[in-house]
Amino acid sequence: MTRYIEIYEDVRKKIVSGVYAYNTKLPSKRVTAENYGVSVITVEHAYELLVEEGYIITREKSGYFVSYRENEYFYGNKSEQPIRKVSSFKVAEKAEEISFNIYAKTARRVLSEYGEEIKVRPDAYGCENLRMAISDYLAKNRGIEADYRRIVIGSGAEYLYGLIVRALGREKIFAIEDPSYHKILNVYEAEGVTTDKLPLVADGIDSESLWESSAEVLHVTPYRSFPTGVTASAAKKSEYIKWSRKRNGIIIEDDFESEFSESRKPEETLYSRDDSGRVIYVNTFSRTIGSFMRTAYMVIPERLEEQFRDKIGFYSCTVPALEQYILAELIENGDFVRHINRVRRKRRENHNDKM
């Protein structure tokens, strides 16, 4: 692990555990560098990550102060106004799609190596080799430990939303961000469930609206919710997890585009923070590979595994085996991660050029 990531993790744990309390000043970069035996630049990188994720803030000529806090209830955000205007946030552009040459070369290799095997009907949850590749990728790159047997492949995130409704039950109330990607509401309305629209504020869903809602399922996009571009702060992510525990609720984490974060480290997911099995993680390759790749996946928490198998285990996988084999190969040979890293470097460079 890179040294600045180690420092980030250590300071973050101290903040969350209360060693560094809310609004207290952190040791200076020079003092911290001496304590860890590293350069000031290394500490600066660690502190920058903590600022990005909302754990600390900088005050001009004063230093770094803790901005993260956990309250029993998170009321008191009335000073923050709901976001009504659509921001200039844009989704991944076509130029950020994986190289066609890489995709074509991989497709030819799969056809040559697997031959007739690609004609075999996939398992209900998808081809085992792709689910194992995703499991390995999530563990190494996203901090998500997921048994491949709890990964479900489907033809797009919208299709998976429908499966989640059928598994959890149409009688439940689903809360969504307001505003949010219009297809989320479209799918839930088509499935016949009641939805509760919760207004977004600067750091995520308005706290009072969240706790006053009677929803049992919460659909959130913690990283750059579309179309507003709002990113949930570290404290807000903790609030979502706390809400799920106190309300015996389920969270659908829609990890929209987070792999393309400009940050030096992968975005922290709700799934990786949850220790009670209440988060269903959803992601799609249409953002990371390209819009032509209509393949998504979800990770089911262990506590819901049996329920999902009973309710949706009989559905046939909707993604052709060839597409799944190609994806598995892209992940296993490293092309997928190399592509993501290239895009992230490009975005960081563009971001720095604008500053």
Automatic annotation (TrEMBL):
Entry keyword DNA-binding: yes
Residue ranges of domain HTH gntR-type in the record: 1-69
Molecular function terms, GO-annotated: DNA binding; DNA-binding transcription factor activity; transaminase activity
Keywords for this protein: Aminotransferase, DNA-binding, Pyridoxal phosphate, Transcription, Transcription regulation, Transferase
Protein name (database record): GntR family transcriptional regulator / MocR family aminotransferase
Keyword Transcription regulation: yes
Matching InterPro entries: HTH_trans_reg/aminotransferase, PyrdxlP-dep_Trfase, PyrdxlP-dep_Trfase_major, Tscrpt_reg_HTH_GntR, WH-like_DNA-bd_sf, WH_DNA-bd_sf
Database matches in SMART domains: HTH_GNTR
Gene3D superfamilies reported in the protein's UniProt record: Type I PLP-dependent aspartate aminotransferase-like (Major domain), Winged helix-like DNA-binding domain superfamily/Winged helix DNA-binding domain
